[in-house]
Design a protein that fits this description.
The chain has 249 residues and is of the alpha+beta class. Helices cover 20% and strands 26% of the residues. A six-stranded mixed beta sheet has the order 1-2-3-15-7-4, with no helix packed on it. Strands 5-6-9-8-10-14 form a six-stranded mixed beta sheet. A three-stranded antiparallel beta sheet has the order 11-13-12. The structure holds zinc ion (ZN).
Length: 249
């Protein structure tokens, strides 16, 4: 992925571009400021307008999820505005920007270029342990006959194995990784682990049939880059939310 720096904001975009598909992981300058976070963690109209002024999307085309660290993936088939409770969404619709809000968790986008289907998945450790990404791929197969080997996957900036320290209570949720588990958890002297959340999601996608050469992973860590991203681990309650989106035009 590529980091593009503009005078007052930055974004990360996939290296491989597709005609008619836009994918942007925005820096915190276009995110939700902590002062603007309402109880639903939705961006204010002012913030949506700001994004709209930099990118060619109408605020009415922006879809947000009420993210709850679950594994629900919804199939959006009409343009009626809503704020569904889910951590994943897929759609065949054009001019619908699927937004994710993250502050260390992994934002993931999917694109099936054959059937023209897009998807967005919010994966923290809970969603990852529930294999929400696999569920999103299966929903695309079920509703749109997507072939996993045709899917392009974009794993955005999130907390990296450099900074994501977890304890045994998190570690125990990943026994489904079997022998591979050691590749994603590095044990420390104090019996905690450094966890590779992006790597586990890429692995889950591969297990679901996505080809490794079609997976792009941002190497940027939200925790290591205070100038670019909000990080919940770093800033605690004082943090805002980074925004990212995928849209077909
Ligand atoms: Zn880091």
């Amino acid at each position: 992925m590529e980091l593009i720096k503009k005078p007052d904001y930055s974004y990360i975009k996939p290296t491989k571009d597709f005609e008619g598909v836009k994918i942007f992981f925005l820096s915190k300058h276009l995110g939700i400021h902590v002062d603007e976070l309402n109880t639903d963690s939705l961006p204010s109209q002012k913030e949506l307008q700001k994004i709209s002024s930099y990118f060619p999307i109408n605020t009415k085309e922006m879809i947000f999820l009420k993210q709850v660290h679950g594994d629900e993936v919804i199939n959006k088939t009409n343009k009626k505005m809503s704020y569904p409770t889910a951590d994943g969404i897929i759609t065949p619709l054009k001019h619908v920007a699927l937004f994710l809000k993250t502050a260390d968790c992994v934002p993931i986008f999917l694109f099936d270029p054959i059937n023209k289907i897009i998807g967005a998945v919010h994966a923290g450790w809970r969603g990852t342990s529930l294999k929400i990404l696999k569920k999103a791929i299966q929903k695309m197969e079920h509703f749109y006959r997507t072939k996993p080997e045709e899917v392009f996957l974009y794993i955005g900036p999130s907390i990296g194995p450099c900074c994501y320290q977890v304890k045994e209570d998190v570690y125990t949720h990943f026994s489904f990784l079997g022998k591979e588990k050691q590749n994603f958890f590095t044990r420390r002297k104090d019996k905690s682990y450094m966890m590779d959340l992006k790597g586990i999601n890429a692995h889950i996608a591969e297990q679901a049939g996505v080809l490794i050469e079609k997976i792009e992973i941002s190497d940027l860590c939200t925790h290591c880059n205070p100038d670019l991203f909000y990080s919940y681990r770093r800033d605690k309650e004082e943090t805002g939310r980074n925004l990212s989106f995928i849209m077909m035009t």
